[in-house]
Amino acid sequence: MKRTFNDQSEIVPENYHILIPEATIESRLKELGQQISRDFRGKKPILIGILNGSFIFLADLIRNLDIDVEVDFLRISSYGDGRESSGHIKILKPLSADINGRSVIVVEDIVDSGLSVQFLERMLSAFNPVELKFVTLLNKPSKNIVEVHIDYIGFEIEDKFVVGYGLDDAQLKRNLRSIYFIE
Length: 183
Ligand SMILES: O=P(O)(O)OC[C@H]1O[C@H](OP(=O)(O)OP(=O)(O)O)[C@H](O)[C@@H]1O
Ligand SMILES: Nc1nc2[nH]cnc2c(=O)[nH]1
What we know:
Keywords: Cytoplasm, Glycosyltransferase, Magnesium, Metal-binding, Nucleotide-binding, Purine salvage, Transferase. The chain has helices at residues 22-40, 55-62, 115-125; strands at 2-3, 11-12, 16-20, 46-51, 70-77, 90-93, 103-111, 131-139, 152-156, 162-163, 179-182. By secondary structure, it is of the alpha/beta class.
């Protein structure tokens, strides 16, 4: 275990390396919050957090919005405990809200192959939202194997497996405050 150099100085395994410190995430979220507030003012959008990975990002993002929003969650899984998408996406918890005629913002923690976003786009469009936008904290453009359009991106990152701030290492480490890559 080693102690990293960031504001909170958290203890992480030796093979974890800092990629995005907590303070950088915080200031990017302020910018995203302003942009989304401006684009959705008066529309009362429903933000749909994709579990599990997005729960911390969603919680921090909505506190950077100064507009009325609803929140719902959908749980899908394609990775299990591994580091490559299985390509088989399962719905583990369906949507509760009725999104027919609503402005919808899907909140992802990371876009990797793009298969999850492609699946969500097709699945949610069938419920006839008036608009369907996607926000992701992280995107790995070099790993995208399908073409996806993401409306708001926090950070573009290289092809590295990342953990922390909601993202897991075999279901653990989601509680780290910064984002690390594993080597
Ligand atoms: O672009 P893709 O290759 O589809 O990968 C992105 C998806 O992978 C992760 O979910 P995961 O299945 O690991 O579940 P989790 O959110 O519970 O960790 C992440 O939260 C995205 O939903
Ligand atoms: N934790 C984690 N989950 C992912 N799902 C797709 N890519 C990643 C990644 O880099 N880290």
